[in-house]
Design brief:
- This protein is an alpha/beta fold and about 375 residues long.
- It has one domain: Ribonuclease Z/Hydroxyacylglutathione hydrolase-like (Metallo-beta-lactamase, Chain A, 4-Layer Sandwich), CATH 3.60.15.10.
- It contains nine helices and 18 strands.
- The strands form four sheets. An eight-stranded mixed beta sheet has the order 1-15-2-3-4-5-6-7. A six-stranded mixed beta sheet has the order 8-10-11-12-13-14, with helices on one face. A two-stranded antiparallel sheet has the order 9-18.
- The longest helix has 8 residues.
Length: about 375
């Protein structure tokens, strides 16, 4: 470090600002400095189910990745790691790509436990936001004889427990804890997590002939994480932004939100699916009723899109969709994106500047010139399968 320069952790405390870094930054879990006491998060996987590019897809967005276009970067499936001390970590969802994600993230790798080595992991717990395959299949990677606590709502616990494959998780070592909405719990000392319902639906494998979309139950939840006075909100799946949800998210230091599709019908346009984003339980980013508009008035220190589908054109640097996202003050997450939030004193308030003006149009979709407030309710939709 050059003479007179401040360490990153000191800069955080001095400025009271949070920081976000792309993969490969020298600051974060790859750094050699002592662990920070602020809330830290690492995006292990920024993509939706199937990852990006998807293994069997040559839609216009995946084709760029297969052809080596420098405007796009591969991404693995959805998961986030959080820590209050940089030593012990909690996973928010366990991706099918978890093994590769651990190999790419030094902070999550086994540490030296003594001259003889042995088993070790800094991963102490997992918190599940729903029972989707891209959020629970990684639990199978964690079956190799390490103590672990898994936190889930009753709905998600039942969905996972009904599959005998998950019996490989040794009950002697793996403990399940049921979480209740609105009741904070501590997955690790120094971390407080509160679950809240968001409009969603049951996992695909539990859908019947009639599917109810937009219900607010324990089947789809968001998580509010607090440590050292800082706060992060994680909502990787959401069918709609209600006025109550917008109010809950306001003032957070970092908002990581569902970015599955930009255009509601993009999978149909690309000829790779028969469902809209909303049919899958994911509101679009763009359009008059998309998340860019619905969350425009929600003040937050950082706004980051996660759980991004392989068909989403905002994955492409310089695309009209990416420019719209950038102009609205959002970041499109990459694998390895790191967020460090400042330590705050007791009673210290977060006062973020007003969000930038939202463009009056998003690509291919007209929106009103005036800002559209979030809907006051989220009536569920019942769809025949």
């Amino acid at each position: 470090m050059r003479e007179g320069a401040q360490p990153a952790a000191d800069r955080l405390r001095a400025t009271g600002r949070n920081e976000i870094r792309r993969a490969g930054s020298p600051v974060g879990p790859r750094a050699t400095a002592a662990p920070s006491t602020s809330l830290r998060a690492i995006v292990l996987g920024a993509a939706a189910g199937g990852g990006y590019p998807q293994w069997n897809c040559r839609c216009s967005v995946c084709a760029l990745a297969w052809d080596g276009d420098p405007r796009v970067k591969p991404r693995t499936q959805s998961s986030l790691a959080i820590s209050a001390d940089g030593r012990d970590w909690v996973l928010l969802n366990a991706s099918p790509d978890l093994g590769a994600q651990i190999r790419a993230t030094p902070a999550l790798q086994p540490r030296r436990t003594g001259p003889a080595g042995g088993r070790d992991t800094p991963i102490r717990a997992v918190v599940l936001t729903n029972g989707d395959v891209d959020h629970v299949a990684g639990l199978l990677t964690l079956r190799e004889k390490a103590p672990l606590t898994v936190f889930a709502t009753a709905e998600t616990r039942a969905a996972v427990g009904a599959n005998p494959l998950f019996a490989v998780l040794d009950p002697v070592l793996v403990t399940w804890r049921e979480i209740a909405l609105g009741r904070p719990f501590a997955p690790l000392p120094g971390l407080a997590v509160e679950a809240f319902a968001v409009p969603g639906k049951v996992p695909l494998y539990l859908e019947g002939d009639v599917v109810e979309i937009g219900t607010e139950t324990g089947a789809t939840i968001g998580l509010s994480v607090r440590a050292a006075g800082a706060r992060l909100d994680y909502v990787p799946g959401c069918a709609a932004v209600t006025s109550a949800l917008a109010a809950r998210l306001a003032g957070t230091d970092a908002l990581l939100f569902d970015g599955t599709v930009f255009h509601d019908d993009e999978m149909l346009r690309e000829g790779v699916g028969s469902k809209t984003g909303r049919r899958m339980g994911h509101m679009p980013v763009g359009g008059a009723d998309g998340s860019l508009i619905a969350l425009a008035s929600v003040a937050a220190g950082r706004k980051v899109f996660v759980h991004i589908n392989n068909t989403n054109p905002m994955l492409v640097d310089g695309s009209p969709e990416r420019r719209a996202v950038d102009a609205a003050g959002w970041t499109v997450a990459e694998d390895g994106t790191e967020i460090a939030l400042p330590v705050r004193g007791v009673g210290e308030e977060t006062a973020w500047p007003s969000p930038p003006d939202t463009p009056t149009t998003t690509p291919a979709t007209k929106t009103p010139a005036t800002m559209r407030s979030a809907p006051t309710s989220s009536p569920s939709t019942t769809i025949a399968r």
